[in-house]
Design goal:
Order of helices and strands: EHEHEHEHHEEEHEHEHEH
Number of helices: 9
Number of strands: 10
Distance between the termini: 33 Å
Largest sheet: 8 strands, mixed
Strand content: 15-25%
CATH topology: Rossmann fold
CATH class: Alpha Beta
Number of domains: 1
CATH superfamily: NAD(P)-binding Rossmann-like Domain
Length: about 220
């Protein structure tokens, strides 16, 4: 798969909207999966020429890669409802399971991570965890902090990971192979650290946790 890779973004909020806009502007065909009646005209106006919208099921069936970018509280329900059209598709879980108690508290489902639960709910999907460790500002502009935002990707399907690494690189992100899907739990905790620092730790939102090598 290359720039012809078709991408569905299930969700058109801050994360999904910004990520879809970025991927579209980077030359990928993007379709937003949204509820009937959702007004996405303003969002589509920020995208490239090959951006459109449809129902979540239609978007998932059309796409090669599906990003789930919905509130963490409904991500599992959405994945379960789309299990049919997600079969055989690369599915990227961008969400984080959390509660709030003077800051973010990781609240994984019994499977050990939200990504693992999604993989169980849609067993024929090729599930990866990623794009979950920074704020929506960086989904729109991965270079906002002066370096490309690191996208840590965890998953058991090596070929699926290669596809997402390629599209992330072509869209200005710095992808990092973070190991097998069991490491999705680690990435969700990295997200807890980012949220804590941004929201209660005084750092604000304009930073990323990035992999940088010594020169």
């Amino acid at each position: 798969m290359a720039a012809s890779t078709r991408i569905a973004i299930v969700g058109a909020g801050n994360v999904g909207g910004n990520l879809g806009s970025r991927l579209s502007q980077s030359g990928f065909a993007v379709r937003f999966g949204v509820r009937e009646g959702a007004d996405v005209a303003a969002l589509l106006a920020t995208c490239g020429k090959d951006a459109s919208s449809s129902s979540p099921a239609e978007a998932a069936a059309w796409a090669d890669v599906v990003f789930l970018a919905v509130p963490g509280t409904v991500a599992l329900e959405v994945a379960r409802s789309l299990a049919g059209p997600l079969a055989g598709k690369i599915v990227v879980d961008c969400n984080n399971p959390l509660t709030w108690k003077d800051g973010p508290v990781w609240a994984p489902p019994p499977e050990g991570s939200l990504a693992a639960a999604i993989a169980k709910a849609a067993p024929a999907a090729r599930v990866l965890k990623g794009f979950n460790t920074f704020g929506a500002e960086f989904h729109k502009d991965p270079g906002l902090a002066g370096v490309p935002a690191s996208v840590f990707l965890a998953g058991d399907d090596a070929e699926a990971k290669k596809v997402v690494i390629d599209l992330a690189s072509k869209s200005g992100f710095a992808p990092v192979d973070a190991g097998p899907l069991r490491n999705a739990a680690v990435l969700e905790n990295v997200a807890m650290l980012w949220i804590h620092l941004a929201m209660v730790g005084g750092q604000g939102r304009a930073f990323v946790l990035s992999l940088q090598r010594a020169k």
